[in-house]
Specification:
single chain; mainly alpha; 8 helices; 0% strand
Length: 171
């Protein structure tokens, strides 16, 4: 390579870098401004329409159902032997259920992760880490672990299976 070619290549690289440094803040500032330009709806005090009232009624019904479901599932402890017996076939052979259950807030959460791991062929330890340590939802953990799976459906199925297990143990 000749000195002229080396000089041209060096100037080209320095020029490209300088252009990037000069335009970078403008591009990122624009992206931040576009992302923060969320349009909020203006609420008029005292003006409630029927749709809002119906939505609030549905939300209160859902909240009541969630509290009732939590009351039903709160009776089973994560370390309950009956739960461990029920989940033993769901987890891998040789898994220590006492160690697997560590860190879960509820028996339903533990059973949901166990069923999700079995249904999606994602390792239980990986799903447990993403839900407990990284604070992700079950669906988000499944989506991150297995992008080609329908994460929302898999999470709902696992939750339903977990609730069924808890109901069979508690009642």
């Amino acid at each position: 390579m000749t000195i002229g070619k080396m000089t041209a290549l060096s100037l080209g690289l320095v020029g490209g870098f300088a252009l990037g440094v000069w335009t970078g803040p403008h591009i990122t500032e624009r992206a931040d401004r576009d992302a923060s330009a969320v349009h909020d709806t203006v609420a008029i005090p005292g003006a409630r329409d029927e749709a809002t009232a119906a939505r609030e009624a549905r939300n209160s019904n859902r909240a009541a159902a969630a509290r009732a479901a939590a009351a039903r599932t709160a009776r089973v402890d994560v370390s309950a032997p009956a739960l461990h017996d029920r989940l033993k076939p769901v987890l891998n052979r040789g898994a220590d259920l006492a160690i697997a259950a560590e860190g879960f807030r509820s028996a339903e959460q533990f059973a949901t992760i166990a069923h999700a791991a079995r249904n999606t062929d994602v390792p239980f330890v990986l799903l447990k880490h993403r839900v407990l340590n990284e604070g992700k939802s079950v669906a988000a953990a499944i989506r991150e672990s297995k992008p080609d799976a329908n994460a929302a459906v898999e999470a709902s199925l696992a939750r339903a299976q977990a609730r069924s297990d808890i109901a069979s143990i508690a009642g």
